[in-house]
Amino acid sequence: MYPVMINIREKKVVVVGGGKVAARKIKTLLAEQAAVTVVSPTLHADIPQAEVQWLARPYRTGDLEGAKLVFACTDQEVNRQIMEDAAPSQLVNNTGDKTFSDFYNVAIARKKDVSVMISTNGLSPSRSKEIRKKIEAILDQL
Question: For residues 96-116, b (16+ Cβ closer than 10 Å) or e, as one string?
Fold first, then answer.
């Protein structure tokens, strides 16, 4: 695995699914100023509808067009279809099965001019968050 940081500012990111997992992903994407499109019949209350382009319907082939990153946050069957539909240039995070993901999300500890990425290789986002807080405390002392 090769760790990288990707600038997604103003880049199209498609999130398929509108539930709690999607809401967590979208929060981070919006903080990085990505242009987020959500494909889902419904939206979780934590998804700011005014800040995303919402296609209020189930996923269809063609919905990934122009996306740099894709988050498949729905059921196994649809997630599998998304993986098949993605172009070779599109990276897909299958939130239902990390073994079929092109990338994992990382936690990032940022202070001043330093960024530290933390990953549990998709196994435990809560553990990444815990470690991030500890690293931020260390960075505060520098």
Answer: beeeebebbbbbbbeeeeeeb
